[in-house]
Design brief:
7 helices; 7 strands; alpha+beta; five-stranded mixed sheet; single chain
Length: 184
């Protein structure tokens, strides 16, 4: 990531909006914003699927559910944050992973310019591919600053997206069970 270039761009933005980037309160702002972008977009240089390389043989054939995983991302349309909770489920096929790895995958995809719909699908797809799961369900709930503090200004609105794969999608009983677990 080109931190120096980001700093120059932020300095130009401050000038463009009529501010003095050299005044005391703003003097270090370009540097702070560059470091912030480095953190918020850290997923650009990574492969979230790499977190799922290590798995463990386990003859567990029921749903594995991890709910309320906090995440934050940046809307690629306005470069404003959206944040919320991810609810994740998979139906193993002889292999399980450490639960922290599931949360790391969420962060890996979230820490890049995103739209919530794509983020939801990316997480579900990598779980299906890398875990060789029989089924996957991912539900994201998030508030978007681009909707709550600008534009239509609808504070408190919550966007919910889901991606369902394999038996969690095709088998009605499994789908009902996984959705009940994700939303309980």
């Amino acid at each position: 990531m080109d931190l120096e270039r980001i700093q120059k761009a932020v300095r130009e933005i401050l000038i463009a909006v009529g501010e003095d980037p050299d005044r005391e309160g703003l003097h270090s702002t370009p540097h702070r914003v560059a470091k912030m972008y480095q953190e918020l977009f850290s997923g650009l240089g990574s492969s979230p699927a790499d977190h799922l390389v290590t798995s463990f043989a386990e003859q567990y054939d029921e749903l594995v559910v991890l709910r309320d995983v906090p995440f934050n991302s940046m809307c690629e349309h306005h470069l404003m944050p959206f944040e919320g909770k991810a609810h994740l489920a998979y139906l193993p096929d002889g292999q399980v992973v450490g639960i922290s790895k599931l949360a790391r995958v969420v962060d890996g995809f979230a820490h890049r310019p995103q739209v919530q719909e794509r983020l939801t699908s990316q997480i579900a797809d990598v779980f299906m591919e890398r875990l060789k799961a029989k089924g996957v369900a991912v539900v994201l709930e998030a508030t978007h600053a681009c909707m709550t503090c600008r534009g239509i200004k609808k504070a408190g609105s919550l966007m919910v997206t889901s991606a369902v794969r394999g038996r969690c999608k095709s088998d009605g009983r499994t789908r009902s069970e996984v959705m009940a677990l994700l939303y309980s």
